[in-house]
Amino acid sequence: ILAMASFPNFNPNKYSEYPSEATTNWAIRHVYEPGSTMKIFMAMILLNEGIINANEKFFCPGYVEFGNSIIRCTDSHGPVDLEEILQFSCNVGIIKAVRKIPDDKLYEYLRNFSFGQKTGFSPFETKGHLPELKKWTPSTSYFLAIGQGISVTPIQLVTSAASIVNGGKIFTPTAVSFITNSYGDVVKQFSYTPSMMGIKEKTSRQLLQAMTKVVSQGTGKNAYLQDYAIAGKTGTGQKAKPGKGYS
């Protein structure tokens, strides 16, 4: 069940007196590049398909080159395994790992994660963008690995990420579970059958463990609480300028 609020708010009785940024529901309408949050989905694919060993190391010298492109890390992380890639949000490590995933397999999983599609939460939501496989270039998967060249809404990203906690099941997000009349009788019940993604229980468990370390030891330490285990992933998206690439 999803509780959702937007800010700045507005008085619906005086709708015309407020600017569009106040009356738009950003959670279902705002589209942006998800940045490093995409790394958790890449990690899930790699583990679920058995493409790499969880302890396999990828060397990060601080940057990676392919074609005319150079993608940098915030640091030279040296040899990192998948858990450390998530913990330090290592761009180089995840790109080198994703090179092992065939493009058609990667595209299939991303579609199963519901990227580039509406969640079903609202008829007014934006669906985001996942490029069609036939339009991919040799470097598309590398940019997707760090959350570039793909766009999502907040509701879409939360829905997809929740599949990790739900053992690989995608649920249609809902704002309420049921509606009652003035007597407290249930007049409408909301329930949805989840889509099964074929994610192994072991995969979900490994990802949650790695994401917990992101918060306790890695880039998400600001969210750490001593008495609770919190799983998370930081994401910093770059803004692309029309015709000029990323600043």
Question: What topology emerges from the helices and strands here?
Answer:
Layout: H1 20-23, H2 26-29, H3 39-48, E1 58-60, E2 63-66, E3 69-72, E4 78-80, H4 82-88, H5 91-98, H6 103-112, H7 140-145, H8 154-165, E5 169-170, E6 178-180, E7 186-189, E8 195-196, H9 201-216, E9 240-241, E10 245-246
Helix pairs in contact: 3-9, 4-9
Oligomeric description of these chains: single chain
Q: In DSSP terms, counting alpha (H) and pi (I) runs of 4 or more, how many helices? A: 9
- Rounded to the nearest angstrom, the radius of gyration is 20 Å
| Largest sheet report | 2 strands, antiparallel
Strand order of the largest sheet: 1-4
Q: What structural class is derived from the secondary structure elements?
A: alpha+beta
Total number of beta strands: 10
- Measured as a percent range, the helix fraction is 25-40%
- Mean pLDDT equals 90
Fraction in beta strands:
5-15%
Could you explain how this protein is built, in words?
With about 250 residues, this protein is α+β, with helices and mostly antiparallel strands. The chain is about 30% helix and about 10% strand. The protein starts with 19 loop residues before the first helix and ends with a strand.
Question: Short summary of the structure?
Answer:
The chain is of the alpha+beta class and 247 residues long. It has helices at residues 20-23, 26-29, 39-48, 82-88, 91-98, 103-112, 140-145, 154-165, 201-216; strands at 58-60, 63-66, 69-72, 78-80, 169-170, 178-180, 186-189, 195-196, 240-241, 245-246.
Features:
single chain, 247 residues, alpha+beta, two-stranded antiparallel sheet
